[in-house]
Amino acid sequence: MSDADHEHRHGHHADVGSGDEVSRRDVLAGAAGGLILAAASGTTASGSAAAEVTRTASGAPGAERASRITRGRTLVHADLHNHTLLSDGSGDPALAYESMRSAGLDVAALTDHATLSDGVLSILDPLLPDGVNQITGLSRGGWRRTRELADAADEPGVFTAIRGFEWTNPLLGHVNVWFTDAYTDVLDATLMGGFYRWLTRDDGFLGLGDGGADGLAGFNHPGREPGRFNDFRYEPKAHDQLVSLEMFNRYDDYLFEGWAKGVSSPLVTCLNAGWRPGLSGVTDEHGTDWGFPEGKGRTGMWVTENTRQAVFQAMTERRFFATRVSGLRLDATADGAPMGGSIRRSGGDIRFAVDLDRGPEWDGRRLDIQVLRPGEGVPSVADVVEAAAGRVTRFTVPLDAGDGDWVVLRVSDPSQPNGTPGPDGHPCNDFGIAYSSPWWFDPA
User: Fold this and answer.
1) PROSITE patterns from the entry (predicted)?
2) Backbone angles phi, psi at 101, to 5 degrees
């Protein structure tokens, strides 16, 4: 084990750092004051260092971009869910991409609401400013305007600007769609079946996919709307294109969304239904603070380069994680497989390695890593592992595919409560910092 590593074997904790013993009290003292702190001013990372160091929303240095446990990928920070005056937001869409770039984001999307068809919009559009529709949602003209803005802001290798839209059914749920020239709304594709038929139609796909698939999609703020996407009823044809599930939306952790009303965890319900999404965090901005302030959801992606093609690839591979802390780096492997990948056996002692960092301000900060597994209504927790930011944490957990085909890592601050808790005494009733994308048991 290297000096940077922190070992855990079935509840046994080895030394941290250079070999000197670090007590629980020492680690907790380093975490005092809470995790979401205002960063020191006047320490902005330079643009020339952008490939190496993250800049947080407050301008302070965050984690370096290179993983300590995998090679061939670079960390980029993304926000894939935002709104403007083109639907029900209050901000000028022409300002959105630059705002997100100035907040330290490397990948950004506008996803205004697609609510009503152009038949209705054609009556209302002449009464509103060009491309603006606060009443009914994104118009076809607004959709074209989003492409113009994204293309103007996109700078391959430096900043990736994506256009998308949010298919918006007030009862069934909201679904983001990215990487498509096509467009639909809730009157053209009213129910989940109609949306999935639209998403999977055989129209070809911008040269980015394999043909036949038209865009990538993700479940938004899952569980907020009562229908919950027909309770996440699985549609095999949409399996490859449905790539994300929001775990952090604005300031909220959606792990136990609806639990207080007797509804099962969106994470458990979605993954148990057969979907295989990665897990994301988003700002879902409706004002003018795109990318700001600290504490709203973000997504970390592991890409080969910062381009639309590479972001598309990372999303299809589920090589991303959810967080609500700017500047955070999370990389993890299970039996050597990266997050979003497959564990090629049916069980046994599964070896995890977790690289967790947010730069010098968080060095040594106490965190927990919770190993989430399928459960009845809520995830079961196979283990809780103490970790420290700025180190690699390695541990093994005995898992059995017979207990369910997925596993997720949740990073938390045990000193703060979850604002939306689950059952009394559940280990995840503390404050969530990040979620890895799942791994799935796929024995060879």
Assistant:
1) TAT
2) -65, -40
Using the 8-state DSSP alphabet, how is residue 40 labeled?
A: P
In the three-class reduction of DSSP (H, G, I as helix; E, B as strand; rest coil), residue 372 is classed as strand
User: CATH code at 131?
Assistant: 3.20.20.140
Q: How confident is the model at residue 203 (pLDDT cuts 50, 70, 90)?
A: very low
Range of the domain at 103: 53-330
Q: Is pLDDT larger for residue 270 or for residue 202?
A: 270
Q: What's the total number of domains in the chain?
A: 1
- Return d(Cα 91, Cα 292) in angstroms, integer: 13
Kindly indicate the confidence band of residue 204, based on its pLDDT and cuts at 50, 70 and 90: very low
Can you list the positions of beta strands (E) in 231-373? Answer: 242-249, 252-253, 278-282, 298-303, 320-323, 329-334, 337-338, 342-343, 347-357, 366-373
Question: 294 in helix, strand or coil?
Answer: coil
Q: How far apart are CA 64 and CA 330, in angstroms?
A: 11
Q: Is residue 159 part of a domain?
A: yes
244 belongs to a structural domain: yes
The least confident of 31-40, 44-53, 73-82, 83-92 is 31-40
Higher pLDDT pick, 47 / 399:
399
Q: What is the pLDDT of residue 126?
A: 54
CB 289 within 8 A of CB 299: no
> What is the number of residues in the chain?
444
413 domain residue, yes or no: no
The DSSP string of 411-428 is EEEEEEE-SS--STT-TT
The C-alpha angle 323, 329, 331, rounded to 5 degrees, equals 95
**Cis peptide before 293, with omega less than 30 degrees from 0?**
yes
H-assigned helices in 14-139: 24-30, 96-102, 118-124
Q: What is the pTM of this model?
A: 0.85
Secondary structure string (H, E, C) spanning 95-119: HHHHHHHHCCCCEEEEEEEECCCHH
Token reading at 387: 């970790």
pLDDT beyond 50 at 119 = no
**Over the stretch 371-382, which tens digit does the pLDDT of each residue have?**
999 999 999 999
